[in-house]
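2 proteins. here.
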Amino acid sequence: MTAPAHVRRTARCARWEGVGEPFTVVEVPLPGSLAPGEVLVEVELATVCGSDLHTTTGGRPAPAPSVLGHEQVGRVLAVGPGDPPDHLGGAPVEPGTRVVWSVAASCWSCARCRAGMPQKCLQLRKYGHERWTEEHPLRGGFATHCVLMPGTAIASVPEAIPAEVAAPASCATATVAAAIEAAGPIGPDTRALVSGAGMLGLTAVAMLDAAGARVVAVDPDPLRREQAARFGAAESSAPGSAIGEVDVALELSGAPRAVQSCVDSLTVGGTAVLAGSVSPGPGARLDPERLVRGLHRVVGVHNYHPRHLRAAVDFLAEHHRTRPFAELVGGRHGLDDLETAFSAARLGTSPRQALAP
């Protein structure tokens, strides 16, 4: 493997021991060598995602122990032998490159990967959701280092993007890029509904506005509705308010009533994209006649294709100075203060909390 001479020999990671248990910070050796396709990255900053919170409370099944975290930015220290990793059209992945990486690693050879759905690979392995072992202890973002697995999408990140802005690209921003692509063409004649003005929703508002759409943001929190205006929303309202018909509806909160509202709000030819419903819950009512006569589409989006990670970074590079993305991330906690970061994240004062390991 290629690596600079000053690479340290150990790493520290915050190991999650299970629901109701505190994190344990452990020191582990860095790999003496890397397998073909592996990349060693030093983590600059990670953010606490909503799914991390759901994992620690038992709302999302996950193996324990494990190292959580799948939104992070870091710098490449070493690259395994063989062909260099695909850099998605950005700078080459080599020691010194600043990067974000996909939430999962795909095999790229199974039926789903060949069908263009690597995010649903039959051999999928997810960062922040793999069981911790002594052989593979660095598989999550809440650590000083992460060993990227073969099949991981990697995107270079310009130095000008603040770490707080870049880290969520690995999950939130790329997921929104996938959702907007699924919605179909967006332009000046598009009236778009964004349901939920959290991290994903505010990002969606900014992306849709940049594409020329007139955006309506819906959220029960008046402060979030106010924030949506700063990200480009032309209108904002509380759930249950009349919003009229829309061409595109993005549901990013996962609230059952919000799902129903998105489906019911579509005009003729409209598309509803559901990306927030990642936990079991009550179903929504679907009127088949209205769906047929309205030429409606209802699309589900979960995770994303590697091209969406590149699109996320490119969007942030172009727009992070004109939209207050950095304000969406609060705190800057150390690895030993991860419990404090999670407590702050549960309070919801900021859509994300930062961890600088």
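next one coming up
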Amino acid sequence: MNLTLWIVTGLLAVAFLAGGVIKLIRPREKLAAAPGGGWVEDFGAGAVKAIGAVEVLGAAGLVLPGVLGIAPVLVPLAAVGLVLLMVGAMITHLRRHEATAIVVNLVYLALAGFVAWGRFGPESFTG
């Protein structure tokens, strides 16, 4: 179970790190022009950068506390934060009638929820 949690955590961290970095370095207009980037039109440039920063911080929070052994309770808290971020993403895509994006967000939500459950419960770093 611990190995499965680490694998899922690593995959989530890579996905959120990549998505966050793209949101941080690409201009809003280029993000909007990309496939599936229409949601950017609903947000200002600062909000898109803030979402990117939250994703990068969430990715770091999934891995670094557990690897370094410093405040490992931050791992499940980061996972819960990413669950909340995905709920917001699903609401945005629901309003825009983007069903495919909702499915992707639901997968990320389920994986982050699994990490939160596993690290708060049976495979806690403190247990």
